[in-house]
Amino acid sequence: MLLFSHPKTLRKLLFPSKNYIVCFLYKDFPMFIRMQKFNYVNVYMRWKKDSYYDSIESINKSIELKSLVSLKNIISIAPNQCIPISTVSKKALQLDIPIRVATFLRQYPSVFEEFVGPDYNLPWFTLTPEAIKLHEEEKAVYEDYKFDNRLRLKKFILMSKYNRLPLKIIQGMQWYLGLPEDLLKNLEANLDQSFELVEMEDGLLGLAVNCEDKVLSLMQKNAIKRGVYSGGKMEPISFPLFPSRGVRLRRKIANWLDEFQKLPYVSPYEDFSHLESNTDLSEKRIVSVIHELLSLFIDHSVERKKLFCLRKYLGLPQKFYKVFERHPHMFYLSLKNKTCTAILKEPYCDKSAMEMHPLLSLRNKYIRLMKESEAMLKNRRQRKLTVVVEYEKLDLESEEEGTEIVESSCE
Asked: Beta 341-344 vs 123-127: how paired, if at all?
């Protein structure tokens, strides 16, 4: 009797583990629901710099390139493909340009050519022949990949709770999805009948998708190719891991990661209302959403702050960004350019995992053209310096001649 007098001793004898309590309390529920209880491990991994991902130019130059392409598009649709500076001088905030627009344009003489306009000697800008050539290539890519653009947009919308997203959210993600800027200006011409313009709860106009077919994520498609997934619900799929050099996991974290990989895969296109928050299974759903989202983006990266506007619509928790810190083998956080950019490692470590979009190679061509501006500006500075030196030399010679004349007159 004395042996069972203490309530803790009695509890240990009756229920030796917490997991047994879970199974006892939820024995009538499916196994995947029982797994969620008391199954969240709070792990923390220190961020480690990786020069390989920090040196990807298409990501590092993405912010400047986005503003440059937007200005290029404004000039390309103008009469005679040239504009006065007054047309864009007050659009710095809209174009995400942190400096004066005129200063930005003059930083890239290989893309924008400046000349004096017909009225009031105002500066005008047009495109260089090289920029016009790239613009024509870009138009051809958008035309050839029109169906792919619709599919990307459709998948992006289908990841939301109710298969609908506000137009302003879609507009903010057009650059990452590789969609043309004028896509939303003429919906009937650019989209098919599966898209529908709707009014959202908060009074905003939105775009909805009607799709009865089952949509598979990239993870599911690749798992089917490898023969490790049959297409059923709640089957486990392991995420591909790509550890950075020098990153080692402690045994506790490594064990947790092994168990995390064995959990059922929750597709970002499936209903997740049965999942409870703060469980490893709900976290696996968050990872699958971020993984699929980054796989849809052209360069498989995005500024982390841009994802916060999607949290409400994709059903992500308030601190969803912690998955980047808890899964450094899948994602990398680059801190370059005074911002935090989330990068999916898989496409940069396994070229066969996903096909490279031709728009990405075109953006790299734009970046190479932007780099030519540095040499052009350097040559201009050198020429100005040479002219200044020559003027100073002439002034010095004229002063010496004047001194000789004065001396001869004095004699």
From this structure: unpaired
